[in-house]
Amino acid sequence: MRIRLFSTFVLLFLFAVCVSAQTNLLPDQAGSWQAEGPAKTRSGAALFQGSGDVRTDGLREAGLTAEEGRNYVNGGEKLEVRLYRFKDTSGAYEFYTGVIAPDMQSGRLGDESAFGATHGVILVGNLVVLVIPANPASNPASLTALVSALKAKADTTPFPPLRSYMPTHWRVFGTERYALGPVGFSNSMDALNLGEFKTLGKEISFQDDAETILARYQGEKGGGVLLLILYPTPQLAENRLHHLEQAIPASAKASGVTVERKASMLSIVFGTTIPMHAQALRDEVNYQTEVTWNEPSTSATDPPLVLVLFKIFLFTSLFLVIATVTGLFFGGVRVLIKHWLPGKVFDRPKDIEVLQLGLSGKKIDPTDMY
Fold first, then answer.
1. Cβ–Cβ < 8 Å for 76, 83
2. Residue 151 — φ and ψ, nearest 5°?
3. Which residues of the chain have pLDDT under 70?
4. Nearest to 185, CA basis, from 31, 61, 26, 56
5. In the 8-state DSSP scheme, what is residue 275?
6. What is the DSSP code string of 33-92?
7. Phi, psi (5° rounding) for residue 202?
8. Strand, helix or coil at 261?
9. Which is nearest to 232 in space by CA: 160, 159, 125, 156?
10. All domains of the chain, ordered by start, with CATH?
């Protein structure tokens, strides 16, 4: 009974430690900021029941697993921090791009960050941190300490490769939108005033592990919105290309909107004034295809001719010696057995049959043959 109670206590203790380690990521102190009280966490069904000033659409699709909030003070200043944890870095990146805006500026914190007049967003692995108020200029070291503390606990899995394919030249900061599913894609199109093309989400086939990213570009002579769609294989991309071409409205096709494929990636450019602008954006895409074939190989060299001839004569001589010795041994054993056991092992008369023509009446004796 005591053993059972002790085991139950240990299991409950370990469970409490695991839950605490999983939910409490915000530190008690970050630089000069001191936490006012314990962190408030949400999980389960309560996780998707509104999140204040951030958009909640697509949180389930992005894979939100926990939310944590904590207030910090530094003298007379206050800082509100909200932390969103996702199951992987791809979901965190989708949420991050969903809450940034063109009026923000890069903060050079974490993996990516954006700061505006009312709040800031910091991406750290599979974590997204919202900071209110957002101005880090008054005490940047404090936010650096917070990011460093979270980076040690964040997932270090690389971000989706599609993020690095987007051109940086002419891109308007804060317009990037990444989507793993139809909800995120619909929100992305609305954010860039492309609601009329939201129906393309049905033809993209997100159930085949497709990913999308789009952003607005503006150059000196024009701009547009570049949409990249990445598929696991070129075959899927080719199949979806025809579906997307049929789904694009006729008015958009008349204005020059086309779908192009490069290996496993499809690209669409919206809102350009002339086709040259669309082609210029596609040329800036940092996506290269590479086909490799890994096959075992050896680097053999021909031996010298003298060595080859030596081995030929050597092994031929060995073969002749072995054949001669084997023949003498077999013949000698046969002769000795016939001498010691005549007619008992070899050439036994009863086992020898001789065919005769019957020209004479004398019967042939087999022993006369030896």
1. no
2. -65, -30
3. 1-23, 50-55, 134-141, 290-300, 347, 349, 351-370
4. 61
5. H
6. EEESSPPEEE-GGGGGS--TTS--TTHHHHTEEEEEEEEEEETTEEEEEEEEEESSHHHH
7. -70, -25
8. strand
9. 160
10. 21-159 (3.40.1000), 161-287 (no CATH), 314-369 (no CATH)
